[in-house]
């Protein structure tokens, strides 16, 4: 198998394209199929439509299935229109059930139904069963292509069966044992089978301490289980305890990427708009609600400043420090938000405890405030003609604002999480704006109280 690097990629690509142009099917297949599947996908998407048509003629449906599974969803939707229906159906029959279900689930119902009706009855039924599970659950991301063993199977028979069925299974490193009612009762590793005697029964070598997930468990919980136990796959059971599928580590990696992308969108108030495939109009439409809400909160900030108009008129130089106070409080709150959301996502907060977290973040805010305040109380009088009172006002305001900002940045995502809403919804811009308002109130309250000394 050849793996392309930057140095030979261009030359190798030229060789593949030249074989295509010359319609030298044998040369193309030798060059193309020798590549790593990931490099095959990258090379395929670089082809123009006429070159892709030649690829469809050179590869079998089963060979192209590996490429199709590696494409992004939007690319799959584009290229499926170029395929002959007979070729597409044969390709679908060679694809993993979970990957095919993901693709068909994104198509219009009529189109998906047409494909399913032309597929093999068993494969089509497996896909329909997967599509019936709610999105973002274990059932929706699992595959039904696994090998189940019976307790009374002999090791020699299992090894022979593996040789026959392994090519169609998602993974064979762990095999799951079921009883007569298809209920999950044990697990056997491939290593256990290899070292066991041929005449031993599966029930003699299996482990009964099986970690599993339910079909309706959230996909993030499934990812947590695989991460916690370092699994390559985890079995999925129904409410009745029957084994219905497995979720593999590669599917979990996709889940993690999806969840991280979603959290980034939430924290940056750009949910659904981080996809670079979106047009400017669609991106603006998804961002607009947050921006409008933040603009409304900005009016509240302006209202706070308006309430202290007399203070500003009396000492105009107070306005100079508004951006400093607001920016510092907002940034500190966003930092705490990131810490809390990450802790909730990893489950580390349960081990630390909410009280300890709040205490730590408050302490962090106080220490940050003291450091910044010390710098300001020394530098402000130097810059503003020895005005020590102004320095004290700015320094004490910043100390209080940063202390409060860290607490708010921690409490809001915790409350949202308690309401069973994604804590990332407590987005950075939202926390920043809220802390801006509170910081302004603190600043002008202190300034007003000490106005007579300015």
From TrEMBL:
Residues of the CBS domain: 142-204, 206-262
Membrane-topology annotation of the record: Multi-pass membrane protein
Keywords attached to this entry: CBS domain, Cell membrane, Magnesium, Membrane, Metal-binding, Transmembrane, Transmembrane helix, Transport
Gene3D superfamilies the UniProt entry points to: CBS-domain, MgtE N-terminal domain-like, SLC41 divalent cation transporters, integral membrane domain
Transmembrane annotation, as ranges: 290-308, 320-341, 362-384, 390-416, 428-451
Subcellular location: Cell membrane; Membrane
Pfam family membership, one: MgtE_N
Keyword Transcription regulation: no
Annotated PROSITE patterns: CBS
Protein family: Belongs to the SLC41A transporter family.
Subunit text: Homodimer.
UniProt name for this protein: Magnesium transporter MgtE
Originating species: Caldalkalibacillus uzonensis
């Amino acid at each position: 198998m050849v793996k392309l690097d930057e140095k030979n990629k261009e030359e190798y690509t030229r060789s593949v394209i030249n074989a295509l142009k010359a319609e030298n099917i044998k040369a193309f297949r030798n060059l193309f199929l020798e590549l790593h599947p990931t490099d095959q996908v990258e090379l395929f998407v670089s082809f123009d439509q006429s070159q892709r048509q030649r690829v469809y003629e050179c590869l079998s449906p089963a060979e192209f299935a590996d490429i199709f599974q590696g494409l992004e969803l939007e690319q799959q939707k584009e290229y499926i229109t170029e395929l002959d229906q007979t070729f597409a159906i044969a390709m679908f029959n060679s694809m993993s059930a979970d990957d095919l279900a993901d693709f068909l689930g994104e198509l219009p119902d009529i189109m998906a139904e047409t494909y399913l009706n032309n597929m093999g009855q068993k494969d089509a039924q497996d896909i329909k069963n997967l599509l019936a599970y709610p999105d973002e659950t274990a059932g929706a991301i699992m595959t039904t292509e696994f090998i189940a063993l019976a307790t009374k199977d002999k090791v020699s028979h299992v090894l022979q069966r593996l040789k026959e069925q392994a090519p169609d299974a998602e993974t064979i490193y762990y095999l799951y044992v079921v009883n007569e009612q298809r209920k999950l009762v044990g697990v056997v590793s491939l290593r256990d089978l290899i070292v066991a005697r041929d005449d031993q029964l599966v029930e003699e070598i299996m482990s009964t301490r099986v970690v599993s997930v339910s079909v309706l468990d959230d996909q993030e919980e499934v990812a947590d289980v695989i991460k916690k136990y370092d699994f390559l796959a985890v079995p999925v059971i129904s409410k009745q305890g029957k084994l219905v599928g497995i979720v593999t580590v590669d599917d979990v990696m996709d889940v993690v990427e999806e969840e991280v992308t979603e959290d980034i969108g939430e924290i940056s108030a750009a949910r659904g708009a981080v996809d670079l495939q979106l047009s400017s109009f669609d991106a603006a439409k998804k961002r607009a609600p947050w921006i409008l809400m933040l603009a409304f909160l900005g009016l509240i900030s302006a209202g706070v400043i308006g309430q202290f108009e007399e203070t500003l008129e009396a000492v105009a130089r107070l306005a100079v420090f508004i951006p400093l106070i607001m920016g510092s409080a907002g940034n500190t709150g966003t930092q705490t938000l990131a810490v809390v959301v990450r802790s909730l996502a990893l489950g580390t907060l349960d081990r630390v405890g909410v009280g300890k977290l709040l205490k730590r973040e408050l302490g962090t805010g106080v220490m940050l405030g003291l450091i910044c305040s010390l710098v300001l109380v020394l530098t402000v009088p130097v810059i503003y003609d020895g005005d020590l009172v102004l320095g004290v006002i700015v320094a004490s305001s910043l100390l209080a604002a940063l202390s409060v900002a860290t607490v708010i940045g921690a409490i809001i995502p915790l409350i949202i999480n308690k309401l069973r809403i994604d804590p990332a919804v407590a987005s950075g811009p939202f926390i920043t704006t809220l802390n801006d308002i509170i910081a302004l109130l603190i600043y002008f309250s202190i300034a007003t109280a000490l106005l007579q000394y300015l």
